[in-house]
Amino acid sequence: MGWKAISRSEVGTSHRQENIPCQDYGDYRLFGDIIVGVVADGSGSAKYSHVGSKLAVNTVIDLFARIFHKSEQKKLSPPSPEEESKQMFSKIVQEVIAQLGKTAKQNNCDIKDLACTLLIFIATPEWLVAMQIGDGLMVVRPQNSPDYQLLFTPHKGEFVNETTFVTCSHALEEMQVKVIPSPEFIAAATDGLENVAITLKDCQPFPRFFQPLETYLQTTTDPNQEAEYLVNFLQSEALNKRTSDDKTVLLSIWQSSEVV
C-alpha cells in the first residue's frame, strides 16, 4: 500500500544533434503517505538552464525534506483554500529564486542564464495541491473516476516557444494553483510531451497516451528497477517523430492494495 512513482528524462533529438545537454529535470520524494513531485524545463535560450532546472527541482525537494525532518512526523493537514496555498507556493518559489540567484552570483552569470519553468505537486490519498509556472502539463485521475483531468492550461507567450520562467519578474503573478480531492494517478511532464499528451485546442488529456503509462505503473513491482518500458517510450522513434524537444515525465499512482 502506498505511492509508486518514477521520473525519467530524455534529451531531444534537436539537442542531441547540436550536442546540447538535456535541459529538463524531474524528481520526487516519498514521506510516508505523502509524495512531493517536481518537474522543471530549462529555457532553450538560457546558457545554463540545465543547471537551473536541476537546482530548482532539488531546492524544492530539499525544502520539504527539511520540513518533514524538523516536524518528525509524516502527516499533513488537508490543504487550505487555494489563496492560502498560493502563499505557501510563493514562499517555495522565492526560495528557488534565492538559490538560483546565489548560484548565478557564484558563477558570475545572470540569473536569467538559469531560467526554467516549474511544476510542483504535493499529494496524499485524500488530497492534492499543485502549482505551475510556465508551460508543461499536469494530469490527474481521481480515485473512483475513469477520467483524466488537466489541472492547468500551459502558459504560452505571444511568440513561439515563449513562456513564463521562475526567473521572470512576473512569475508569481502567472503562477497557477489548484487543490483537488482524492488523487490516484498523477502525471507531470515538460512541454516536449504537450502535443502528444493533450489537445492544445481545448486542453484535454489524450486518454490513450496516459492509459498505457498508468497500466505500466500499476503492474510493475518497482518502477525504478523496471524502467525499461518508460525509457524505451521516451527514446522511441515514433515519439521522436512527433517532438524533437527534451522530454521529462514524472508518474505516480496510489495503490491501497497489491494488484493481482
Features:
single chain, 260 residues, alpha+beta, five-stranded antiparallel β-sheet, 8 helices, 12 strands, 28% strand
Largest sheet: 5 strands, antiparallel
Distance between the termini: 13 Å
What general form does the structure show? globular
Q: Specify the structural class.
A: alpha+beta
How is this structure best described in words?
The protein contains 8 helices and 12 strands. It has helices at 13-17, 49-71, 82-106, 171-174, 194-197, 207-219, 228-235, 237-242, and strands at residues 2-10, 24-31, 34-41, 118-123, 127-133, 137-142, 149-150, 176-181, 183-189, 198-199, 204-205, 247-255. The strands form 3 sheets. It has a 5-stranded antiparallel beta sheet, covered by helices on one side. The protein has a 5-stranded antiparallel beta sheet with strand order 2-3-4-5-8. The radius of gyration is 17 Å and the shape is globular. It starts with a strand and ends in a 5-residue tail after the last strand.
SSE inventory with pairings:
Elements: E1 2-10, H1 13-17, E2 24-31, E3 34-41, H2 49-71, H3 82-106, E4 118-123, E5 127-133, E6 137-142, E7 149-150, H4 171-174, E8 176-181, E9 183-189, H5 194-197, E10 198-199, E11 204-205, H6 207-219, H7 228-235, H8 237-242, E12 247-255
Antiparallel strand pairs: 1-12, 2-3, 3-4, 4-5, 5-8, 6-7, 6-9, 9-12, 10-11
Helix pairs in contact: 2-3
